[in-house]
């Protein structure tokens, strides 16, 4: 594991407020037939990388199948939840990031 903190103007390659801010990072090891409740993140992008198992991303009244190796991105304001499929568990990393006031428009153009 490594980390770098941009603490000075010389270290910051963007020379503006940070382009992206990491708000949350987690690892989940969910039981079979498990799921969150519907929720959304205001002004936050959520990236999920499926490590093992199978499941579903339920978003905007659609169900998207997930399996090991998949990466999904949920933009800000989208009502969604994840669930694992029976009899599988679903192990995944979740990363939530936010664009800065100046960088968010540029970041959303990449997606």
Topology:
Layout: E1 20-30, E2 45-59, E3 62-67, E4 71-74, E5 80-84, E6 90-99, H1 104-110
Antiparallel strand pairs: 1-6, 2-3, 2-4, 2-5, 2-6
- CATH class equals Mainly Beta
Number of helices: 1
CATH-defined topology = Jelly Rolls
Globally, the shape reads globular
Q: CATH homologous superfamily - what is it? A: Jelly Rolls
- Beta-strand percent range: over 45%
What is the succession of H and E elements? Answer: EEEEEEH
Provide the low-confidence segments as ranges.
Answer: 1-7
Major sheet: 6 strands, antiparallel
Q: Work out the helicity level.
A: under 10%
The SS-based structural class is: mainly beta
What is the end-to-end distance? Answer: 27 Å
What does this structure look like?
- By secondary structure, the chain is mainly beta.
- The chain has one helix and six strands.
- Strand 2 (45-59) and strand 3 form a beta hairpin.
- The protein has one domain: Sandwich (Jelly Rolls), CATH 2.60.120.
- It has one helix at residues 104-110; strands at residues 20-30, 45-59, 62-67, 71-74, 80-84, 90-99.
- The longest helix is centred in the C-terminal third of the chain and has 7 residues, at 104-110.
- Strands 1, 2, 3, 4, 5 and 6 form a six-stranded antiparallel β-sheet that branches.
- Helices cover 6% and strands 46% of the residues.
- Mean pLDDT is 77; it is low at 1-7.
């Amino acid at each position: 594991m490594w980390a770098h903190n941009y603490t000075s103007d010389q270290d910051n390659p963007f020379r503006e407020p940070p382009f992206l801010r990491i708000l949350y990072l987690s690892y989940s090891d969910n039981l079979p037939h498990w799921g969150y409740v519907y929720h959304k993140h205001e002004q936050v992008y959520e990236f999920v990388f499926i490590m093992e198992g199978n499941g579903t991303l339920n978003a905007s009244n659609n169900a998207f199948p997930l399996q090991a190796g998949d990466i999904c991105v949920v933009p800000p304001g989208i009502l969604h939840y994840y669930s694992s499929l029976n009899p599988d568990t679903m192990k995944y990393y979740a990363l939530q990031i936010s664009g800065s006031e100046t960088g968010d428009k540029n970041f959303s153009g990449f997606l």
